[in-house]
Write a structure and sequence with these properties.
The protein is mainly alpha-helical. It contains ten helices and no strands. The protein has one domain: AhpD-like, CATH 1.20.1290.
């Protein structure tokens, strides 16, 4: 399924999502690697098969390299773990848990195989989907240290929000069929 077919597959009640998907695919604040990596990371974070396939096809057509594709998937994978762990620490009232070492492997964060700024942007996108405030703050701070403009970070957040919503609508429609 192409991105156009995915948009056309959305029901009338989700017209805003289709329009947002289209405008974000044409977003120019982010370079193509950042933009399509954010799309791929978001799609893998949600895991709706049709959306993953459509977005990976669009990213490939746009020229996303295999290294960037792998990096975006790695961001979704590592944040899938970290967002649960750090969100739990944030939500728990016992502060002792925050003093313990995580003892979870996170080597990919230090060496993601792509530009570190791009990887941090993708981690931010996934952290928004997964609702981890601690991770959002951490990755946003790293992006700001790297002088990434706030509107670029917002663009990645918007991509995550729309991909999440599109995925939920597609999954809901499949469940109702």
């Amino acid at each position: 399924m192409s991105l156009d077919a995915l948009r056309e597959h959305l029901p009338a009640y989700a017209k805003d999502l289709a329009l947002n998907l289209s405008s974000l695919a044409n977003e120019t604040l982010l370079n193509d690697q950042q933009k399509w990596g954010a799309f791929v990371a978001a799609a893998h974070a949600v895991g709706q098969p049709e959306v993953v396939k459509a977005i990976e096809a669009a990213a490939s057509t746009a020229g996303l390299s295999q290294a960037a594709l792998d990096g975006a998937k790695a961001a979704a994978a590592i944040m899938g773990m970290n967002n649960v762990y750090y969100r739990a620490l944030h939500l728990m009232t016992n502060p002792e848990y925050r003093t313990l070492p995580a003892r979870l492997r996170m080597n990919i964060i230090a060496n993601p195989g792509v530009e570190k700024t791009d990887f941090e942007l993708w981690c931010t996108t996934v952290s928004a989907i997964n609702g981890c405030g601690m991770c959002l703050d951490s990755h946003e701070a790293e992006l700001r240290k790297r002088e990434v403009p706030i509107v670029n970070i917002q663009a990645a957040l918007r991509i995550g929000a729309v991909v999440n919503a599109v995925s939920r609508v597609i999954a809901g429609e499949r469940a109702a069929a």
